[in-house]
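Hi all, posting the design record for the shared folder.

TITLE: backbone redesign
STEP: 1 of 1
STRUCTURE INPUT:
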């Protein structure tokens, strides 16, 4: 089985997200650690965090997957932007210590004209600066569509970041199905081939979470526009094969599809039905 859930808003607090996901029928979820575009944040109430942790244990949830801000760019050409990004990462990881066992996912960055090699070096440097011996949260690099100057649009670039990390044992990868497809990997017709390639380059043991999205665009478009499950270019059958793939069992799958609450409930139940039909 996989764990399934969706992205939730943190505005009503942490335990409230757990309760919402219980109502939706899921058993994992994601949230933005700060305003995704503005970068602002609120302190976490430790009692609220403890209440959520208790709920997760009691209900048998899989790991949650917090998402870093889109404004955090660890390889921006502008050194002030870059320093802000490193600072955001360090403070996000401090706060994640309140959620033991949860994962923290972020977009590696956009090199904004500096070149991919320089971008990779700066991302690794920022990670090494922000990830001290504590806290122990596992940090995930997201597979990207490769739009603009995004780093992480192929598995090799993620490998290079991992190779330069001071704490590789606490680094993993989050596989976004829309991004990977948009980057050109054929997860519809050759899922085994893509995962074999991932295993060779990155290692399947590094794969810790999946962002489960259809794509509005054709394979290789490098666009990064998510679509509802089954309504995009990847298609329902292919997505079902992803959720059922033996190499991906046990992972949290997070829906980031353009949906309202009712739509997320439907998609969660679609995935639960797949799990059940397998018996
Ligand atoms: Fe993302
Ligand atoms: Fe994603
Ligand atoms: Zn995306």
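Okay, here is what came back for every position:
SEQUENCE:
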């Amino acid at each position: 089985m996989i764990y399934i859930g969706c992205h939730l808003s943190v505005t009503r607090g942490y335990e409230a997200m757990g309760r919402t996901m219980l109502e939706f029928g899921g058993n994992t979820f994601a949230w933005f650690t700060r305003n995704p575009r503005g970068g602002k944040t609120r302190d976490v109430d430790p009692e609220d965090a403890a209440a959520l942790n208790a709920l997760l244990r009691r209900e048998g949830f899989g790991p949650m997957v917090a998402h870093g801000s889109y404004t955090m760019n660890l390889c921006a050409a502008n050194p002030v932007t870059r320093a802000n990004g490193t600072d955001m990462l360090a403070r996000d990881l401090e706060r994640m210590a309140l959620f033991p066992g949860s994962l923290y996912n972020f977009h590696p960055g956009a090199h904004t004209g500096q070149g991919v090699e320089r971008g990779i070096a700066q991302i690794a440097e920022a990670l090494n600066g922000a990830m001290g011996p504590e806290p122990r949260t596992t940090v995930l690099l997201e597979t990207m569509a490769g739009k603009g100057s995004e780093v992480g649009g192929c598995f090799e670039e993620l490998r290079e970041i991992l190779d330069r990390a001071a704490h590789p044992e606490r680094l993993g990868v989050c596989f976004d199905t829309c991004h990977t497809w948009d980057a050109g990997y054929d997860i519809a017709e050759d899922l085994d081939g893509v995962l074999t390639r991932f295993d060779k380059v990155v290692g399947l043991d590094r794969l810790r979470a999946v962002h489960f999205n259809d794509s509005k665009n054709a394979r290789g478009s490098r666009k990064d526009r998510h679509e509802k499950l089954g309504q995009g270019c990847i298609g329902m059958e292919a997505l079902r094969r992803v959720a059922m793939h033996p190499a991906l069992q046990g992972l949290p799958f997070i829906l980031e599809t353009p949906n309202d609450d009712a739509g997320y409930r439907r998609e969660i139940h679609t995935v639960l039905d797949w799990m059940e039909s397998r018996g």
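COMMENT: The first helix runs from residue 14 to 24.
Let me know if anyone wants the other runs.
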